[in-house]
Description:
Number of helices of chain B: 2
Largest interface: A-B, 16 and 7 residues
Strand order of the largest sheet of chain B: 2-5-1-6
Radius of gyration of chain A: 23 Å
Mean pLDDT of chain A: 94
Shape of chain A: globular
Helix content of chain A: 55-70%
Largest sheet of chain B: 4 strands, antiparallel
Number of strands of chain A: 0
Oligomer: heterodimer
Shape of chain B: elongated
Mean pLDDT of chain B: 94
Distance between the termini of chain A: 50 Å
Number of helices of chain A: 14
Order of helices and strands of chain B: EHEEEEHE
Strand content of chain B: 35-45%
Low-confidence stretches of chain A: none
Largest sheet of chain A: none
Structural class of chain A: mainly alpha
Distance between the termini of chain B: 9 Å
Radius of gyration of chain B: 17 Å
Amino acid sequence: xxxxxCLCLLMSLCCLPLALQAQAPATVDEKLKVLEESxxxxxxxxxxxxxxxSCALVLFMTGPGLALFYGGLVRRKNVLATMMHSFALMALxxxxxxxxxxxLAFSEGNPFVGGFQYAFLHGVGTAPNVDYAPTIPHxxxxxxxxxxxxxxxxLISGAYAERMKFSTMLVxxxxxxxxxxxPMAHMVWGKGGLLNAAxxxxxxxxDFAGGTxxxxxxxxxxxxxxxxxxxxAGYREEPMKPHNLVLSVIGACMLWFGWxxxxxxxxxxxxxxxxxxxxxxxxxAAAAAAGWLLAEWWRNxxxxxxxxxxxxxxxxxxxxxxxxxxQPMPALLIGFLAGMFCFFMVTFVxxxxxxxxxxxxxxxxxAGGTLGALLTGIFAVSAVNPILKSATGAxxxxxxxxxxxxxxxxxxxxxLIAITLGAAGSFVCLKIxxxxxxxxxNAEEEESGLDLSMHGEEGxxxxx
Amino acid sequence: MKxxxxxxxxxxxxxxxxxxxxIGIDGMTITEVRGHGRQKGHKEVYRGQEYQVDLLxxxxxxLIVASARVEEVVQTLSQAARTGKIGDGKIxxxxxxxxxRIRNDERGEAAL
Lengths: 464, 112
């Protein structure tokens, strides 16, 4: 469609000299204005089409992507409860976002959190919000950000899998969104946010699609949750093998697929930047899968399926903050390093320290996100994305290899804020939710399986 | 009447069923079980967590036969199930007090 419109415009432009000979100059100006408007409208249509698809892709990452990925990794008796964590949040977070969440994250307020200007989505319509995404409807931008808000708390469920009460999870997540996510999203992406590189933050932090906002906050919150809840009953004594790795493989591939919307969609248009982010994302995933598999092959003698999918997710996490700032070759390197680093975190560090991060939310998202955020400070180049501007509007170098070594410091600050907010916020929200509802199911409920005790169902009734 | 209980390798089930059918033994009950004798298990690794899997999948057959036919059935079964390697399985024989056909109340060896 876009090609046809461009072709028409080109042909019209070729007819212009003929028109010039026959008419007065004022009409030419008018014609040019009409042409400009048409070109803009065409670009907007292309941008909005891509962005709406990206919204759907990111939601797909949560359901069924994450639901399947996590669901397959737990024991059979908890498969539905685990999938429910992802699915229920698709409903809960949407409502929170619509009522106050979008406003608290993206309306103007102070450097740490927004205000209530957009509460109940007041003022959010089809006209673009020129600060955030000038070529697409404001509604599209809001919807896109909503999908990020949904998946972030769903990631945390990997740490408390198989031992969290459902009611408590809902209360905890509601509080966590208010205390951690909305402020963090505001700081990095909201207008006037402390860390906003594009919209005048005092400490510009380069985070294209949410390495700090999504992965570090959720990963660190996950670790705290794992520590506060304590390990699953029988941890390290009873076998707790993934009951259906087939589901996890399917889920992981859906995550890879959907991540194109997550990263390339964060360009907020269908431009060359989206292409660049798309390629970086894919390269990061592929290299990380290779990295983890190589590390595993060397260490255990066999390259496992679980290792492959864990690796690719680690790479996708690490490339998330970098995707719109780095070139393809650095993307490969970032992915490869993430694959090996997260393998080390999950298989060695977790064993050593003994915490029960059931599905490695911290080992993959917390650790991978931190590594990615820091590497972004090294490999970001303004040639890919001229995001840092001087007071006069000149483009400034982005990362270390671009000539801006100081960016690493800003990245570190962003990382530290995410870690602190995630850790403290998660702790406080857990304590409150626990006081209201009780944190863990009792021993009997946990033993019989959360599918039965929390939801009154069984995942597989194969004899039915 | 005797009960013949055999624990065999799952992939030998077809051979055993066919061999028993060939000597006129049609009725049997089969269950999927797990177990081991001297056969070693295997190691599985999930994200660095190692699991030693010792309980191996096997097939258990239960047949009730007339006392006179026991030796013939045991020989047929054994030969069909044998591979010669550790893990082939075992056969146990016990005495059965009574057998009743539910459909028409027949008793004893006539019910087999």
